[in-house]
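Suppose a colleague, Dr. K., hands you the sequence of a protein chain of 124 amino acids and asks what its three-dimensional shape might be. Before reaching for any lab equipment, you can write down a predicted structure in token form. Begin with the sequence itself:
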Amino acid sequence: EVQLVESGGGLVQPGGSLRLSCAASGFIFSNYGMTWVRQAPGKGFEWVSAITSGGGSTMHRYPVKDRFTISRDDAKNTLYLQMNSLEPEDTAVYYCAKCRSGRLCLREADYDHLGQGTQVTVSS
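The predicted structure, expressed as tokens, is then:
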């Protein structure tokens, strides 16, 4: 059974940093692309950052491009999202998503599993 468990969320002031983790199990983690997606209050899901299997290629959504970094540790079956210079607009529930292949996946149709999410609140 595929399991994705996010952690690391919390309340942070604008300009602060958080590091999210996603512990994966139930599949060969290294074989699949992974994506961080988020859902802000009253809005739909949007992809934030994506990484291929092996970590050779990454992509970040424009508003977070210079502030967030996605990475993976295949030995630990763990996906990370380092978030710096956080803004109130980053407030959302953050989820990790398993792609259907090793490629980058940005569309909801290209994910096949989603974790339970971790809340990130940016507020003074």
